[in-house]
Amino acid sequence: MSPPMKGSRIARSVIAAFLSAAFLWTLTLSVSPQLHERLGRRRRSGHRLQRLRSAPVVDHRDLLDAGHDGVLLVNSDSPTLPLPILQAAVDAVRRADNVVLSPALDGGYTLIGLSKPHRRLFEDIRWSTSTVYRRTLDRAREIGLPVVDAPPWYDVDDAASLRMLEDELSGETPAFLTIPGAEAPSTRLFLRERQMSLADPAE
Fold first, then answer.
1. H or E element: which one contains 72?
2. Most buried of 44, 81, 199, 202, CB within 10 angstroms?
3. pTM of this prediction?
4. Helices in 23-171 by DSSP H: which ranges?
5. Domains plus CATH for the chain?
C-alpha cells in the first residue's frame, strides 16, 4: 500500500510481530501466498486464515462474496496502529457505500475499507510508491465513490520510520500523532531483543 521497507530481516520481523498481535482477535486473516504456508502452522482455533489469490482488486471481492458486511485491508507494517482508527474505519464502512482510508505519511495508506466491491478503485495504481493514496482518491472521484478519511498514521518502511517507531514505543511520541498508539507488545519485544543484540554483537 506504500513504499516497501528496506532491509528484509527487519521487515520480516516487524510483519511477524504485527501478525502475532492480530492472532489475539477472532477474525478472517487474508495473507499473501508467501505468508500463507508459514502462518498456517500457527493458526489458532477461532481464526480463519485465507490465502490471497492475487491483488486486493480480486480479494476484497472474495471476502465480500463470502458474506462479510465489509472489508478492511490493513497493512502489516504499522504495529502501533491505534484501535480508534480501526474503529473509525469499521463505523464508516457500516454507514454507507464509500471507501475509508487512513493516509500514511509516505503517500500510501495504512488501511482501506469497503462495504461493496469496486474493482476500478484498485486499477491503474502504482503500488509501493508515494502516489498510492492520491491515485486512490483519483479512482474514487472517477467512479463517484465518497471518501472517508480516518486519522492518519505511519508505517515502517526505512531507517527513519523505524527510529520513529522506537521513539514512540519509548514514550517520545511524534508531534503529528494525536492518538495514542497501540501497545504492540510483540514489536516491543522484538525491538528490545534487537537493541540487545546490537549492543553485544557476540551474542
1. strand 71-74
2. 81
3. 0.73
4. 33-40, 56-65, 83-95, 132-143, 159-169
5. 55-198 (3.90.550.10)
